[in-house]
Amino acid sequence: MLYYTVVGATGINHVAEIRDSNLVGEWYNECTMSDNVTRDELKGALKEQTDEIISVLQTFVQHMDERFNKIETQLDSLDQKYDHLINTIDGFISRIDKYEAELAARDNQFEKLLEWARKVSIKTGIPLENLQKEKTSEEAFCSNQSVQINAA
């Protein structure tokens, strides 16, 4: 089979297959003719082919430039969304840190008040319910584990 390329003003359109034997023969005859070609005719033919190749390359480069511009625009959009997301997450983390600091201060203040109430209870001789020192979460976990072990 013989293949030829169809080149138009917008670039390479397709590669076609020559199946008709008459077309193959005509193409072969055109290629093997022994006509003399002048230097100017050869320069003209080469210039024409070069111009056509340059046109194809310019079209290709323009198309690739458009695609890259589109991709760059999409990347810029993604960067903006990423920055917004990071700022939102930073805001949430800041709020959580502030909340945890407030909880620690409140727990500390509450523990001081309980300690004061215990002292008052001891000095006045008035027993107050539920003023035992509260267990930390770790102490509570360990005591629950020991109860479960003892029950087994």
Kindly describe this structure:
It is a single chain. This protein is 74% helix and 10% strand. It has 152 residues and is mainly α. It has a domain at 1-35. A two-stranded antiparallel sheet has the order 1-2. β1 and β2 (11-18) form a beta hairpin. It starts with a strand and ends with a helix. 0% of the residues are buried.
User: Oligomerization state of this entry?
Assistant: single chain
Radius of gyration: 44 Å
Total helices: the number is: 3
Structural class: mainly alpha
Largest sheet: 2 strands, antiparallel
- Sequence of strands across the biggest β-sheet: 1-2
Measured between the Cα atoms of the first and last residue, the distance is 87 Å
**Gross geometry:** rod-shaped
Order of helices and strands: EEHHH
What is the residue-mean pLDDT, rounded to a whole number?
77
Low-confidence stretches: 1-18
**Strand tally:** 2
Write a brief caption for the model.
The protein is mainly α and 152 residues long.
What descriptive keywords fit this protein?
10% strand, disordered N terminus, single chain, 74% helix, mainly alpha, 152 residues
What secondary-structure arrangement, pairings included, does this model have?
Elements: E1 2-8, E2 11-18, H1 21-32, H2 39-124, H3 137-151
